[in-house]
Design a protein that fits this description.
The protein is of the alpha+beta class and 496 residues long. It folds into three domains: 74-298, no CATH class; 314-363, no CATH class; 365-493, no CATH class. The chain is 51% helix and 14% strand. The protein has helices at residues 2-9, 14-35, 37-66, 96-105, 140-144, 171-178, 248-265, 269-277, 287-291, 293-300, 330-344, 356-363, 365-398, 401-409, 414-443, 459-485, 489-493, and strands at 77-84, 89-92, 109-122, 129-136, 150-151, 166-170, 188-191, 194-202, 215-218, 237-242, 281-286. Strands 1, 2, 3, 4, 5, 6, 7, 8, 9, 10 and 11 form an eleven-stranded mixed sheet that branches. Helix 15 runs antiparallel to helix 16 (459-485). The model is unreliable at 301-309 and 314-318 (pLDDT under 50).
């Protein structure tokens, strides 16, 4: 009996006491929130906006910049390129000669691979259109560390002209155009009048490298392209994988040594002068960092003003584009244009047909994304300001319940009390808005270079924001004042 009594009288454990205390604090918080609903709603709205905005921002940043590539050791996957910063060319392609040299002598890399955009015609028998794919060397897939979903990838022998009529499809293209047909391997399709045999399907994660096109073919090249004289024939891009445990800076130093050997032993004086004037150097960067560089630049520095345009003689280009002024719709004009093109050359494709407005909008896509993001931030800031004003004024009115009771006891009507508090609330809000406008007028002059076709002192924007904040201040003053004015003065006088 003594033992049982001791167990019954034993004090609760620390964990139980903590839960009991937490429960009492929680109930007290609920009662406090119910006594001041306006302030409670303001606090809840502020937390909701802040947490939601931060979650949205970090989700966007993770998807755009921070998310790693879906390959093994993505930090070891680098892009190698030539750089001529003094010539205004910070990033240039690689040559086949450099690929052969690095593959043979750069032993700090597990492998190097080339890729290049590849265009072809589709549907030459009817209305030819232009398709975009990629040419890749056989080691491209091993450098990324991916295995075929179906079939196989390319062999080195298929890089020989005449043996390169094979294709690897991306998983997305295979699913959307062939219904995920498991028997796709071995089938023949015609591109540009040439038959190609499908030898494999690449998994979806291959597409994360942003290599254009749903189909890949071998990167064909002849021995002459790998000769020292062709070292400056910069056309393809290069991906490489640094060996595990090797610092990328050490791998870059090895590449620089190979380039210096070419400069000293092979390059002619005119080539050396060309490289010197351009400030030539070999460079590398992590693939993911290179992919997201444009996004980072856009986030770090918003470039304003009109897009720069450079006009060159027509003979400078092998291809051409046409601009047509018409009062007809594009849907009506396009069939006539295709018929006219077929009468000139049935195999000549007409592609990327769009209005000039659509083309201009496409140039602004990156800026639009950043501006929409900043616009979202500005809207959230406006909401936070509105919620802050509402919460502050509502709390201020709730603290004046006793004063309101005294005014009611000495004869003030509800309308008079409500009008007084409303005027005082709008006065405070008006002073704050005025000070804010003065600060905005001073600070927006530093944004002149970031704006295009909009003045930093745009009256419509200033008026809209001011009206929104005044409306919120009116609501924040009126609702608590009306509720407090309805309280019996005797009850109001008893409020602590």
């Amino acid at each position: 009996m003594t033992a049982g009594t001791n167990r019954a009288c034993r004090p609760p454990s620390a964990g139980v006491r903590w839960l009991e205390q937490w429960g009492r604090d929680f109930l007290f918080s609920i009662r406090s929130l119910r006594r001041a609903p306006g302030l409670s709603l303001a606090v809840i709205a502020t937390l909701t906006l802040c947490i939601g905005a931060n979650a949205t921002i970090f989700t966007a940043l993770y998807g755009l910049i921070l998310k790693p590539l879906p390959y093994r050791d993505p930090g070891q996957l680098v892009e190698i390129y030539n750089s001529m910063p003094k010539a205004g060319q910070p990033k240039r392609q690689i040559s086949v000669t450099q690929y052969v040299d690095f593959k043979a002598h750069a032993d700090l890399f597990e492998g190097v691979a080339l890729w290049q955009d590849w265009s072809f015609n589709i549907g030459e028998e009817t209305d030819p259109t232009r398709g975009i794919g990629a040419r890749v060397t056989a080691d491209y897939f091993s450098v990324l560390g991916v295995q075929p979903l179906l079939g196989r990838f390319f062999t080195m022998e298929e890089s020989t002209p005449g043996r390169d009529n094979v294709l690897v499809l991306t998983q997305s293209f295979w699913e959307s155009n062939y219904g995920a047909d498991p028997g796709i391997v071995g089938k023949v399709i015609h591109l540009g009048g040439t038959p190609y045999t499908i030898v494999g399907v690449a998994p979806r994660r291959l597409e994360a490298c942003n290599v254009d096109g749903p189909v890949l073919k071998p990167f064909e090249w002849v021995p002459q392209q790998g000769s020292p004289q062709a070292r400056l024939a910069w056309r393809p891009m290069m991906y490489a994988r640094v060996k595990k445990g090797v610092d990328p800076s050490a791998a870059l130093a090895q590449l620089a040594t190979l380039e210096k050997r070419y400069y000293r032993e092979v390059a002619q004086p005119i080539i050396r002068d060309y490289l010197d004037r351009g400030g030539y150097r070999i460079a590398l960067g992590q693939v993911r960092a290179e992919q997201t560089k444009s996004v980072k630049d856009a986030l770090m520095l918003l470039q304003g003003g009109a897009l720069p345009m450079i006009y060159l003689p027509f003979s400078s280009y092998g291809g051409f584009s046409m601009e047509i002024r018409t009062n007809r719709s594009l849907a009506d004009l396009l069939p006539l244009m295709r018929a006219r093109m077929r009468s000139i050359d049935p195999a000549l494709p007409l592609y990327q047909v769009m209005t000039l407005e659509t083309l201009y909008d496409s140039y602004l896509d990156n800026r639009k994304g950043v501006m929409f993001l900043l616009g979202g931030f500005a809207f959230i800031a406006l909401l936070l300001a509105a919620v802050g004003i509402y919460g502050m004024l509502a709390y201020d009115v709730s603290q004046r319940t006793r004063e309101i009771g005294i005014r009611g006891a000495i004869g003030a009507s509800r309308a008079q009390i409500t009008g007084l508090i409303l005027r005082q609330g709008l006065t405070k809000a008006g002073i704050g808005i005025a000070l804010g406008l003065v600060g905005a007028l001073f600070l927006t002059r530093f944004m002149t270079g970031l704006l295009y076709d909009v003045r930093p002192t745009d009256p419509a924007a200033y008026a809209l924001v001011s009206l929104v904040l005044l409306a919120v201040a009116s609501l924040a003053s009126y609702l608590p004042a009306r509720r407090a004015a309805r309280v019996d003065p005797v009850v109001a006088l008893r409020v602590d």
